[in-house]
Specification:
This protein is an all-alpha fold. It has two domains: 3-86, RNA polymerase sigma factor, region 2, helix turn helix motif (Rna Polymerase Sigma Factor, Chain: A, Orthogonal Bundle), CATH 1.10.1740; 106-177, Winged helix-like DNA-binding domain superfamily/Winged helix DNA-binding domain (Arc Repressor Mutant, subunit A), CATH 1.10.10. The protein is 73% helix and 0% strand.
Length: 178
């Protein structure tokens, strides 16, 4: 079944089509949710909320771009909504404007397995993790992040820079421990 046919069937309430769409994207979307939350239980809650939004707003999917990309955006927004509700994300903390860049050693990154990197990302403070995910993984610009999170662009840039510094120190700690 094509993506558009699957979407149409889901909108019409076909439970088999809805199950197919869920099974098609749930593993990847769980990964998205895990990057924004501290544990599996929270990620599962976010993913459930996200899929509820997917199915209730599916008629808004225009068919432009990939369905997976659209579902991913819904999941990111569900994760951000969750963070706001939990009041754990406080991005309005004044931050210095950081202009330096942290260089990563490619060999160290190659040796990290995906699960190790996910674990390190989940250890980040909420503000760092959220901005890092949105910028480095989801591809939002700092301007878009600022608008979504109601922060300044400089705060977004600072949070991202601090997230990279956090990751670098954790990665170097792993290298020393080997």
């Amino acid at each position: 079944m094509s993506e558009l046919a699957l979407v149409k069937s889901c909108i019409e309430g076909d439970q088999r089509a809805q199950r197919e769409l869920f099974e098609m994207y749930a593993p990847k979307m769980m990964g998205v949710c895990l990057r924004y939350t501290k544990d599996v239980a929270q990620a599962e809650d976010v993913m459930q909320e996200g899929f509820i939004k997917v199915f209730t707003k599916l008629e808004k999917y225009s068919g432009q771009g990939s369905l997976e990309g659209w579902v991913r955006r819904v999941m990111v927004n569900a994760a951000l909504d969750h963070l706001r509700r939990e009041s754990k994300f406080n991005a309005n903390i004044p931050m210095d404007d950081v202009d330096y860049k942290v260089e990563f050693d490619g060999q160290i990154l190659e040796s990290l397995m995906e699960k190790d990197l996910l674990k390190l990302i989940r250890e980040m403070p909420d503000g760092y993790r959220t901005v890092f995910n949105m910028f480095a993984i989801e591809g939002y610009t700092h301007k878009e992040i600022a608008k979504q999170l109601d922060i300044s662009e400089n705060t977004s840039k600072s949070q991202y820079s601090r997230a990279k510094t956090f990751l670098r120190s954790k990665i170097e700690g792993l290298e020393i421990g080997r």
